[in-house]
Amino acid sequence: MHDNDADNTFNDPHNGIDTAKLKALVNHIPGAIYRCRGDEMLSLEFFSDEVEKLTGYPVDYFLNDKDYGYSNIVHIDDVDRLRNTIHQAVADKEKFEIEYRIIKKDGEVRWVYESGQGVYDDEDKVSYVDGCIFDINRRKITEAALAKSKDEIKRLALVAHNTTNSVMITDAEENITWVNAGYTRISGYSLEEIRGKKIGYSLAGPEFDEENQQRIRRALDNKLPFKEEFLSYTRNGGRIWLEVDCHPLKDETGRHLGFMAIETDITQRKNTLKRQEELLQRLTLATDSAEIGIFEIDLSTNHVAWDDRMYDLYGYPKNTDLSLYKIFFKAVHPDDAAMMVSIIDELLSLKKEINGAVYRIILPDGRTRYIESHAIIKKSDSGRILSLIGTNRDITDDILVQQKIKMQNKVLREIAFIQSHEVRKPLANILGVIEILKTTGALNDLEIFDHLVESANELDQQIRTIVNKTNSIDDEVFR
């Protein structure tokens, strides 16, 4: 065939083979069949009609530019590699195979596979290069996805083997097929011991939770992910709490493959929470019994939190729209306001880390109440002030009792004064008369005289004792 041959057929010789039939045959091959000359440019001689399906360009596009027509659609990063591969194979008289990218007429980049070899004359000079080109884009995408998947699997396997958490994988029938070292460390079971067991086997025990089991069953039956906390049992029967994050596994077609569960031992956390709850219960009992209100001020946000008792103490409903700061400073008695500001400043400046005070508040209905308050500073590990935590207790009744006792003591002192000055005055007169009678000898019955002196002295001593005890009353504890 000559360069201007319009019917795009192979050149002679065919030794009688019908070129039309040959063309029909190659056009039925699901790939582009071609023939190039053996020159430096590999000038195109023939392309089967399949090239249009492969590239989007008609055959004439390539025949009209035999030197560069096809090279123009090869990806720029692959052009030299393709040309060098073909020339090297022709020089070595070997078949060549190469995968590279082309850019279709619509701009889509696709991967193709090309295979060919040289046709030589009697002098072993290359006359033609015959070959075929097939679309392998789907295979390359699959290979790339598979490579990525394998890479991800390797990373996941590395993570699963080295993580401290337990990792379990099951098949589609929920049978355990693989566990990592973390699973063995936490549960005590090796893979050989639990392979084939059903997921969730370790949840059955003395404290079996049927509700948990039902939730798991619903998730597994419906191939749904779930995240729950369960009481589980180790190989030696020990109780442990697990946080289980379980997900169904599917292939690229959506077919269910099994489940993967990541389990975290949260036993220490659960025990700590239990102790905290017990401590909180005891604290709540103590504060409720003593009618103590608790408050906290977040110093980074100035957010104030009150418990229900605090609202009761200050006479406001829990759903009040007023700022708790305003409620407090509005309620503090004017004569105690400066003292409270000073106490708060001492805490915030860290002059003191704990402080207490008794102050008065005026309720919305005008009543005055006495409040006993204690507060501490909460700090971070670095020493930064985080919040102010404190308690309030209404001690009005205690104050009133103290005031009543102080009043009673005052009355007793007045009685003592009367006893000291009024009762002892006539007694002093009696003692004086006795002394006169004793001196003048007016009394002849000495026994009666002595008895009278003794009684007067005894009465004087009793009065002195009463006065001394009354004066010794100490009000300091109530001040």
Structurally, how many domains make up the residues? 4
CATH class membership of the largest domain: Alpha Beta
Helix content: 40-55%
Return the string of H and E elements: HEEHHHEEEHEEHHHEEEHEEHHHEEEHH
Query: What value does the average pLDDT take?
Result: 82
- Strand arrangement within the widest β-sheet reads 2-1-5-4-3
Unreliable parts: 1-17
Assembly category: single chain
Number of strands: 15
Could you give me the name of the CATH homologous superfamily of the largest domain? PAS domain
Count of DSSP-assigned helices: 14
Rg, Cα atoms, Å: 52 Å
Describe the global form: rod-shaped
Instruction: Determine the structural class based on helices, strands and strand pairing.
Output: alpha+beta
Largest sheet: 5 strands, antiparallel
Termini Cα gap: 126 Å
- Proportion of β residues? 25-35%
- CATH topology name of the largest domain, in short, is Beta-Lactamase
Descriptive report:
The protein contains 14 helices and 15 strands. With 479 residues, it is of the alpha+beta class. It folds into 4 domains: 19-135, Beta-Lactamase (2-Layer Sandwich), CATH 3.30.450; 152-270, Beta-Lactamase; 290-394, 2-Layer Sandwich (Beta-Lactamase), CATH 3.30.450.20; 408-478. It has a 5-stranded antiparallel β-sheet with strand order 2-1-5-4-3, sandwiched between helices. It has a 5-stranded antiparallel β-sheet with strand order 7-6-10-9-8, sandwiched between helices. A hairpin with a 5-residue loop joins β14 and β15 (385-394). The relative contact order is 0.04.
List the helices and strands and how they pair.
Elements: H1 19-26, E1 32-37, E2 44-47, H2 50-55, H3 59-63, H4 79-91, E3 96-103, E4 109-120, E5 126-135, H5 137-162, E6 166-170, E7 176-179, H6 181-187, H7 191-194, H8 210-221, E8 226-233, E9 239-250, E10 256-265, H9 267-289, E11 292-298, E12 303-306, H10 308-314, H11 324-331, H12 337-348, E13 354-362, E14 368-379, E15 385-394, H13 396-440, H14 446-471
Antiparallel strand pairs: 1-2, 1-5, 3-4, 4-5, 6-7, 6-10, 8-9, 9-10, 11-12, 11-15, 13-14, 14-15
Helix pairs in contact: 13-14
